[in-house]
């Protein structure tokens, strides 16, 4: 019986430790860290690269663009800048939204743009990259934000060939037109 009690106490202690280690911190959207830097650095990174990513050897992670003045950073590393505040509804991560967006690589290469197509995009926030799942719920209808999405919140080491290479940082200007449902 003495052995059983010792095992039971150890099991309870391990379970307690496991549970306290599993607690996660909720994102602090009200007071993110501000990371000022030179705005010109956003468009000057990787300007000599002939392709959006290396084609031989191990893929090198491009340096993330420095944040410009007014840029805020979330706990996960998503950087965002409020270009225009909105006044409408704020979406949850389970809703569908209608947005206009313009996506570029740090060197300025456009890889996708609903603005250039002249047609807003509609999608569920559970269908997009993690950077958008985190960033768009910060917005209200009518808002326009710039997101600098690090590779771990975008397409990671797999990239999205042929336009987005492995470990690529992405820059999006996003306008939230409407929260649908």
Key traits:
Chitinase A, domain 3, disordered N terminus, 8 strands, 4 helices, 19% helix, alpha+beta
Strand content: 15-25%
- What is the CATH architecture annotation of one domain? Roll
Poorly predicted spans: 1-64
The top-level CATH class of one domain is Alpha Beta
Helix percent reads: 10-25%
Question: So what's the overall shape?
Answer: globular
SS-based class: alpha+beta
Description:
It is globular and about 35 Å long. It has helices at residues 2-21, 41-44, 114-117, 130-135, and strands spanning 33-34, 72-73, 79-84, 96-104, 110-113, 121-124, 144-149, 170-179. Helices cover 19% and strands 24% of the residues. Strands 1, 2, 3, 4, 5, 6, 7 and 8 form an 8-stranded antiparallel sheet that branches. It has a domain at 75-181: Chitinase A, domain 3. Strand 4 and strand 5 (110-113) form a beta hairpin. It contains 4 helices and 8 strands; from the N terminus they run αβαββββαβαββ.
Chart the SSEs and their pairings.
Layout: H1 2-21, E1 33-34, H2 41-44, E2 72-73, E3 79-84, E4 96-104, E5 110-113, H3 114-117, E6 121-124, H4 130-135, E7 144-149, E8 170-179
Concise structural overview:
With 181 residues, the chain is of the alpha+beta class. The chain contains 4 helices and 8 strands, in the order αβαββββαβαββ.
